[in-house]
Every structure is written in structure tokens, then in C-alpha cells.
Amino acid sequence: MAPVSPTVARWELVLRLRELREARGFDSATFARRVGFTPANWSHVEKGRRVLTSTTIGPVLQLLEVDREESAELLALLEASKQRGWWAKSSALIGPELQRLYGMEHGAQSIRSYDSLVVPGLLQTESYARALISADVMIRPVQVDQLVAIRMRRQERLRGADPVELTAVIGEATLLQQTGGPKVLRGQLERLAELIETHEHIEVRVIPFDAQAGATLGGSSFHLIDFAGERLPTFGWSEGAVFGGSVDDPDRVRDLGFAYLRALEQSLTRTETLALIRRNARL
């Protein structure tokens, strides 16, 4: 099983509480007042911005008429949500949104990603990551080493007894873009080839230049994260040149799922992708 993630536990807790509230016919404001919260504070709870305590959750479970078995499950989620993941300890460097992404990755069963021009962070070599991070004008030079270390720490989920399953679709331009220069790029391509050859849970697929609908998604970048728990929906993340954030609208997450399928359909097979990466690594 995937490791326990406080971020995922908190997300499941608030989703289930909201579902129970709606099933019992309470609107948010009325429910908040009945359990001793202001409507604004309860809104923060349901959005995961405020954590319940062992004391404040009592009236919530009572008003929702939760049975003993489900109550125990929700209390266990509450306890798990109070822990601090490694990403939270880096809050001085990464904001709440990135902390949420890394927390979701940590507790994921599978991840689907699409990147048009760069290798996704979970597959980057240290040199490649350093080249990308150093090029960001918003990042101070003194922060580069720490941010590189964080990116490498994320990759621990690809290893171990129960690694996350990763399928990464990238554009062929990624294999040619001279990120960090020829030596850095060659090292990155060799790493990708090695991962494809030696790790069945890692899939890399390239959309070739001659794919007839290969430019459909343009320069976008997004990730779809799924979990073992049946109660949890897919978590979506999308980013652009200056902003990255979670996708909370279920319809938009669904649309990203369709976009990912279109990208996958345009990509080469695993064997073809490996051959193309190997050819480019020798250039």
C-alpha cells in the first residue's frame, strides 16, 4: 500500500464530512452554526484550510448521526491528518499549493502526467532539475540547492516496496530542448531509458513530431493523481509559465482525463519511445 499521507487523509476527511452533511440535507451555513462554527470557519474546514480537533469533531459526528464504524474511520483520518509530512517541513521554500501536490503524490497509487517540453519532476536527474530551477528568475540562487533536494526527495515514491505507478507523456521536443546543455540533456535521456528498461511501474511515452494531432494540447502541463481508497476522486493539478495549482472542479478534472487519453493515443508505444530516446541520447 501507498504510505499514509497527512494531506490525503485530510482531503478524504473533509470530502466525507461534506458528503455526509449534504446527504443529511444541511446547507453549509446552517450546519456551521449547529456545530459551533461560523459559516466562514466551517467553509475553511471543508476546503481543507482549517484542521478539526478531537474536541471540535465531536459535535460534527453527532449531528451527522455517524455510526460507530464510520465514526472510527473518520477519527482515524483526523489523527493521520495531524501528522507533518516532509513537504510541510519545507514550508519556507514551497507554498501551500505545492505542499498539497507533494502530499498527494506521497499518498498516491498512480500518477498520469503530460508535459510538452520538459521531463516531469519525478523523473528528472539532479543536473536537469538544477538547470530548470536555476533558470527561474523568481528563485534566488541561495534557494537552488534546497529546491533541488526537495525535487529529489519527491522521487522516493518511485522506489521502495510499493512504488507509485507513473505514466508520463511528453512531447518529442523534450528530447531535443537543450535544458542545461548537451551533457545534462544526454544524462537525462539516458536516465529515462534506464527507467523504462528496468522499472515496470514507470511508463514514458513520447508524442512524435509527426503525430497528426500531436499539438492539440499545446504547451500545457498537468498531472492526474489517483489513490487506492475507493472514496477518493482523482486529484488534478495544472500549471503554466508562472502559476501551478490544484484543479478542484470535478468537471475540469474529467476534461483533463479526456485530454490525457488523447495525448496517450498520439504517443509512441513503450518500445518505440525507448528507441527514440536512445537515438537522441547518442546525438
Automatic annotation (TrEMBL):
<dbReference type="InterPro" id="IPR001387">
    <property type="entry name" value="Cro/C1-type_HTH"/>
</dbReference>
<protein>
    <submittedName>
        <fullName>XRE family transcriptional regulator</fullName>
    </submittedName>
</protein>
<dbReference type="Pfam" id="PF13560">
    <property type="entry name" value="HTH_31"/>
</dbReference>
<feature type="domain" description="HTH cro/C1-type">
    <location>
        <begin position="17"/>
        <end position="71"/>
    </location>
</feature>
<dbReference type="InterPro" id="IPR010982">
    <property type="entry name" value="Lambda_DNA-bd_dom_sf"/>
</dbReference>
<dbReference type="InterPro" id="IPR043917">
    <property type="entry name" value="DUF5753"/>
</dbReference>
<dbReference type="GO" id="GO:0003677">
    <property type="term" value="F:DNA binding"/>
</dbReference>
<dbReference type="Pfam" id="PF19054">
    <property type="entry name" value="DUF5753"/>
</dbReference>
